[in-house]
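Task: sequence design from structure.
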């Protein structure tokens, strides 16, 4: 979300989710990004998954209000997208397609207003899938809804609703998703001039009559080093250390173990992102 831009539906509860889940990857990743002065960025990444590795090469070119993205992986899959901003004031459009497997091209539109946003997407095939979302409110309170409809099945794929209440030192969010089956509530609180953040998240799935409570937080040791911890009532404990050892070059180490099952092997992840 850009500075000063009213949030989309996907932004409701986003900050809390980033604290608890972002970069908690338990794989080995190596990423190198290079940029040129004319707006071209090339990114090469390799991910080690158990006994095999996968990789991809991505290119992004930006010119004025347009951005073209192309990604090719080791399975010869190609994903491309074209993003245009401010064709008309406050409107953003995204067109994307994946090859060689037949995946319908998709067109997305996002409209931003001072106190509202509207988003829509459609798959460009004979039986399209439509997705729409909308938010409205004030700088402190955001209310949003989201829905999807599959014309081939003549049925809704999703209908969700959410609300977020923001204060200078906290953010409270509530989301009802998965056609009313899952409720997610989160509370985020900033401490120590936002260098330390605490989060509490509660999830309840009505069809399974079960819930998950997760507590966590992050602390910026300095401008270059970040530590994150989380613990849930299922017995999972996660820790993350992230350090920017040179501008835009970041080393991330993550670990997780189940303290209720000592026979389960801990999970470890290592990511190195370099920008020469």
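Answer:
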């Amino acid at each position: 979300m850009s500075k000063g831009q009213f949030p989309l539906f996907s932004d409701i509860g986003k900050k809390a989710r980033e604290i608890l889940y972002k970069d908690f990857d338990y794989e080995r990743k190596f990423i190198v990004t290079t940029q040129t002065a004319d707006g071209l960025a090339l990114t090469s990444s390799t991910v080690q998954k158990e006994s095999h590795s996968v990789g991809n090469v991505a290119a992004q070119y930006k010119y004025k209000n347009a951005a073209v993205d192309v990604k090719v992986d080791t399975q010869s899959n190609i994903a491309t997208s074209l993003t245009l901003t401010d064709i008309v004031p406050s409107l953003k459009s995204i067109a994307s397609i994946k090859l060689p497997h037949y995946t319908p091209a998709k067109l997305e539109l996002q409209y931003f207003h001072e106190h509202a946003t509207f988003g829509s997407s459609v798959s460009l095939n004979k039986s399209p899938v439509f997705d729409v979302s909308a938010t409205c409110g004030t700088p402190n309170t955001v209310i949003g809804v989201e829905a999807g409809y599959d014309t081939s099945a003549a049925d809704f794929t999703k209908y969700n609703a959410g609300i977020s209440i923001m204060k200078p030192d906290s953010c409270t969010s509530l989301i009802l998703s998965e056609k009313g089956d899952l409720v997610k509530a989160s509370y985020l609180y900033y401490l120590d001039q936002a260098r330390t953040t605490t989060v509490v998240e509660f999830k309840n799935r009505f069809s399974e009559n079960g819930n998950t409570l997760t507590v966590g937080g992050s602390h910026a040791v300095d401008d270059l080093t970040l530590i994150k911890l989380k613990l849930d009532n299922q017995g999972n404990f996660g820790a993350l250390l992230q350090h920017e050892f040179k501008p835009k070059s970041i080393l991330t180490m993550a670990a997780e173990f189940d303290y209720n099952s000592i026979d389960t092997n801990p999970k470890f992840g290592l990511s190195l992102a370099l920008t020469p």
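The two ends are 27 Å apart (CA to CA).
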